[in-house]
Specification:
By secondary structure, the chain is α/β, with parallel strands linked by helices. It has 5 helices and 12 strands. It has one domain: P-loop containing nucleotide triphosphate hydrolases (Rossmann fold), CATH 3.40.50.300.
């Protein structure tokens, strides 16, 4: 297969409320300005702000196609220059091969997702995607307790499953305030 220098993988990661979807949307719009053909996907499980759009917490949005699994992306992105995938941590391990295959075919692939789950463990395929990426952008939120850079998603509900969709269940915290748990008083309004 001939080498195509345009094929690349970009990963946007960080904790909840760090602006991952906002950054993905910004890059997608720039690609459209550059007259690239763009196809965007997200897992069907993420219907927080609507099923057919990537939506930031600031309510900025970009149309997308919800998918049940990573293989569907391959079938739906033919003829495009750029593939965007939001909430990639929910896609399962097969997304790594799909992303690599798309990049090998000369596509620019931009994925956005949580790097850590609420228990500070790598979330789904993110660790593998990070080490395979050509470019990585790690974003930070603001710790709701102390106001410093936040890198953790603190789950307020105390449930133990890895996946619990819903922004109201989480708050952004720095490493130190994350480990103080529910005893940490919210200081930043």
């Amino acid at each position: 297969m001939p080498h195509n220098p345009r094929g690349q993988v970009e990963v946007i990661c960080g904790c909840m409320f760090s602006g991952k979807s906002e950054e993905l949307i910004r890059r997608l719009r720039r690609a459209e300005i550059a007259r690239m053909t763009v196809r965007v996907f997200k897992p069907a499980i993420d219907d927080r702000y609507g099923a057919k759009a990537v939506v930031s917490h600031l309510r900025d949005e970009f149309p997308c196609t919800p998918v049940e699994n990573a293989r569907q992306i391959v079938d739906l992105c033919g003829g495009c220059d750029l593939v965007g995938i939001d909430e990639v941590q929910f896609m399962g391990p097969e997304i790594v091969k799909v992303v690599d295959d798309l990049a090998r075919r000369g596509k620019r692939v931009i994925v956005a997702g949580l790097d850590l789950d609420a228990f500070e463990e790598p979330f789904g395929p993110m660790a593998e995607l990070l080490v395979r990426a050509d470019y990585v952008t790690k974003l930070h939120a603001v710790c709701v307790v102390c106001g410093e850079d936040a890198t953790r998603s603190y789950r307020k509900s105390g449930t133990t499953g890895q996946v619990e969709v819903g922004s109201d269940q989480y708050e952004a915290r720095c490493r130190g305030c994350y480990h103080h748990g529910p005893e940490a008083a919210v200081a930043v309004a």
